[in-house]
Amino acid sequence: MSDKPVTIYDIAQLVNASAATVSRVLSNSNYPVSSEMSKKIKEAAKQLNYTPNMLGRQLKKNNSMSIGVIIPSISNPFYADVVLGIEEIARQSGYQVLLCNAHQNPKLEAEYLQTLLEKQVKGVIISSISQRRGWLKPYLNRGVSIISIDQRIESRQVVQIGFDYRHGAYLACSHLIQRGHRRIAFISAALNRSSRQHIHQGYQDAMQEAGITPLKAWIQISEDCEDTKYCSTFEFNNGKQLAHHLIAMPIQERPTAILSCNDLTAAGAIKELKEQGIDVPGQMSVIGFDNIELSEMLTPSLTTVNLPKYELGTLACRTLMNLLNGDHVGEREMMLPPEVIERDSVVTRLE
Amino acid sequence: MSDKPVTIYDIAQLVNASAATVSRVLSNSNYPVSSEMSKKIKEAAKQLNYTPNMLGRQLKKNNSMSIGVIIPSISNPFYADVVLGIEEIARQSGYQVLLCNAHQNPKLEAEYLQTLLEKQVKGVIISSISQRRGWLKPYLNRGVSIISIDQRIESRQVVQIGFDYRHGAYLACSHLIQRGHRRIAFISAALNRSSRQHIHQGYQDAMQEAGITPLKAWIQISEDCEDTKYCSTFEFNNGKQLAHHLIAMPIQERPTAILSCNDLTAAGAIKELKEQGIDVPGQMSVIGFDNIELSEMLTPSLTTVNLPKYELGTLACRTLMNLLNGDHVGEREMMLPPEVIERDSVVTRLE
DNA sequence: CTGAAAGCGCTAACAT
DNA sequence: ATGTTAGCGCTTTCAG
């Protein structure tokens, strides 16, 4: 237990070889080594219970074989799925993932990035809340590859991978319109992220295309509150509150359907509607956004817009690996297509 | 961008000092350095835009300042919360978290542990599915501190931190009994983990204490299927299926309440019951286990047993930090207390 | 095919 | 208070 750890020198000594040769064998270099020497070394390594110290290799090669993943919070199931995808590809590629929960805090984001740099991480996947233009510049200048997921970052130098939120919302809203709805509400927390802005835009586009001018009161967007920690409960309660505003409207103006900026908010809305004795989808249809696992567990199960989260993770990580290998990366900007998942919370409205 | 990275030598040169002095200043060692020298060095570091290369320090000190966290899957919200707690403490202590999703695969678990060792990780928090006695021995022998969370591991050398599942289930079942229920079902996936076994035991204990002998058919435990990837949907569908069996029983034998081994399964049960026209909690009360965020979003919101997951994470990581610092760690085995959270899925049964 | 030697960036005796 | 020196464990020229 308190023995000195065994190194390639110990092995070299045991088989009367040099450390160089041992290194060549044990690091799977393609440098020629006689097969008998190679065999002896491998046996000795096993016998001595050798474990390579990667810090040595990594210092030499200046490559830590780790990537950083900076997200708001892993307790958000959305990111949990993305990270699962990232980690899977990373592992397959021999990389490890350093997980950083930045809690929507720009200072923490910067702190993490610094730490990752110091740990000689050469690639970072980030879903940053910071919109401040150029803030990644100093890191990029140090040769770190950065991939921004889900949230846009103003920079030509970072690869952006996300979802086409606008189109997703457009699809969702069109779905409602096709089912005979015209008074369609949009509910969301503050539009302080590009994703939410795009969802809002998609809603507007679909409405306009259908020739519907939404009433002000149909568009319920809550105040921007700078709560530092992410929390599902916030979105949920927000949905409850916004739905409450909606049903306070006079019946002839009241919407017959709600498009929510995410599933959590939709869940809150449904809960509130039911508590207020409004049947979903009988009296009010609800469509969500994200397709987290929750959505099929609700009653009624939630019609929503699927975002391929795991696939976002794998694509981001694959792209990062290409970048690190110096392979050519085609697009600097990629969008994964959303898709409406029909379940039970939307009903066709008979005129 | 392709410049050589700046090292302490560059700084030393600039201020006419030795690398040693620079190191002493920049690594916050408490070794005495004149304040003017110190100031010059700090300024030079800033001017040169110096970023320390931790690989150098870590190789020297043989400490990677990373810990490993091995869990079945981060997409399980239970573990997401735990990991959030772990990461928070790790960050505060200057450590980073390497995340490993082992997908209930013993081979992957071992592979990860090996990689972590090679990366010179000195502490690992693991929720292992492997029950094979002594399998951690080789790692422990290399001086790695291991903390086992949530799942028991047969070893005197690893600190165990978990929940008192038995007591939690006992509380839950007693809660139902106190509310007049006597025909109480227990539903669960296969009892292939100690947590589930203990929950089952708690159920039995509470029933026995109340003088109730459960019918065989009340205890619905599904087959052990070796599905490699964890998936919420599995637990959910399992709940649906098991609930289905329950309501197939003749009405006079049919349970009036269900104790579920986790919230996901409870959610499935509730869904199935509602689909079959059985009112929850009017005709059937349901109590869950875990208190994941989903539970308050369901309708009816789920009465369940809270497990302090985030706290488990922080406690585990704090304990690990103590271990790594060589501080004395009191208990080798800790249990966090569960607690019944009353919501709307349990009703008092009037005889 | 194999080995000697230098060095990745940093720290820590041990001098001075 | 500062400098010199010798590594940490590994890879990689360069010579043989």
Descriptive labels:
homodimer; 351 residues; alpha/beta; 434 Repressor (Amino-terminal Domain); Rossmann fold; 3 domains; six-stranded parallel β-sheet; four-stranded parallel β-sheet; 12 helices; 41% helix; DNA-binding; Peripla_BP_I (chains A, B); LacI/GalR-like_sensor (chains A, B); transcription (chains A, B); transcription regulation (chains A, B); LacI family transcriptional regulator (chains A, B)
What is the β-strand count of chain A?
A: 12
Most extensive interface: pair and counts? Answer: A-B, 57 and 57 residues
Question: Which structural class is indicated by helix and strand composition of chain A?
Answer: alpha/beta
Question: Judging by the overall fold, what is the CATH architecture of the largest domain in chain A?
Answer: 3-Layer(aba) Sandwich
Mean pLDDT of chain A: 94
Beta-strand fraction estimate of chain A: 5-15%
Ends distance of chain A: 79 Å
GO molecular function (chains A, B): DNA-binding transcription factor activity; transcription cis-regulatory region binding
InterPro entries (chains A, B): HTH_LacI (IPR000843), LacI/GalR-like_sensor (IPR046335), Lambda_DNA-bd_dom_sf (IPR010982), Peripla_BP_I (IPR028082)
Pfam families (chains A, B): LacI (PF00356), Peripla_BP_3 (PF13377)
Protein name (chains A, B): LacI family transcriptional regulator
